[in-house]
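Appendix B. Worked example

We walk through a single record from start to finish. Start with the input: the chain for PhoU domain-containing protein, Halobium salinum, length 333.
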Amino acid sequence: MVETRKVQVTGGSTYTVSIPKDWATENGVSAGSEVEFYPEGDSLFLTPRSEDERTEGTLDISGLGGDELTRAVMTMYVSGFDIIALENSRISNDQRRTIRQATQSLVGLEVLEETRDRVVIRDLLDSSELSIHNAVTRMRLIALSMLEDAVAALADRDQDMARDVIQRDDDVDRLYMVVSRIFRSTLRTPKAAEELGLPRETCFDYHSSARQLERIADHATKIAHLTLTLEESVPDDVAEALMKLYEETRDVVDAGMDALFEEESVEATRMANDAREAVQEIDERARAIDELLRELDPTRAQMLGLIVDSVSRAADYGGNIAETALQKAAPTP
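Next comes the structure step. The output line below is what the pipeline stores for this chain.
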């Protein structure tokens, strides 16, 4: 329910406004309490001042194991808890191993305490020192290098390189979790956005684009897995066409990311539109490669068709980033 208050003047120069009693009671605000104000555009956010800057969360892991337990730990991490207590009447050895593996797969976490019925995990990173810009930039570099190496491994039948691509997917996933954690913290409190020095809308754009980069890395991993199962070499004309398709896809993703980071709105709009138009040309090139595959035996043609689809989908994700850049460059209502 929306409540309104009338702004008053006290002392001839100070503006005052009352706080709704129900809100104050629910948030522990009373006479003498301190609150913090955060200006953002034409809005002013008010939040109770907290002495404890670290948030704690407790999760009952009874009946959880394997992927479910891993996902539970990741969810608590992304949700922004600095200290995560996992409890059960008796934590099994399998659960402990899963918790340790999940902890090692996330940036900044360590096991702080272990007892018979409780494992406590702590985040060592200071959220004010994290950079969502740097995390997304790192994701861009890794995802595109994975895609390039996946296509090269296919052409050269380099299984070692294909395995290396698969391993690097974990790095992208870790960075995406960091970006998600930072983004959700800006939704929870305006102080997080102030510490980052970025508007919350920009954090949303970065998070949206990071999701596209994570998908590009997933498709690079898919290509690497297919390479490991491919029994015959790729015809030279198909390999050359795939590398060209990758190069055009890389240019789309780079253009979209450059537009996202561009501060000048006119230039960002131009770059983003160029990237979106290039996606259509890539679709045409992908169809041309599909025509080449018709000359191969059905099994190999189907497998290579999946690879063509993965590279072209990566271009689509680059186009999505460009669309996000267009929205970021648009005038603010």
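Two observations about the output. The first strand starts at residue 8 and ends at 10. The radius of gyration is 25 Å.
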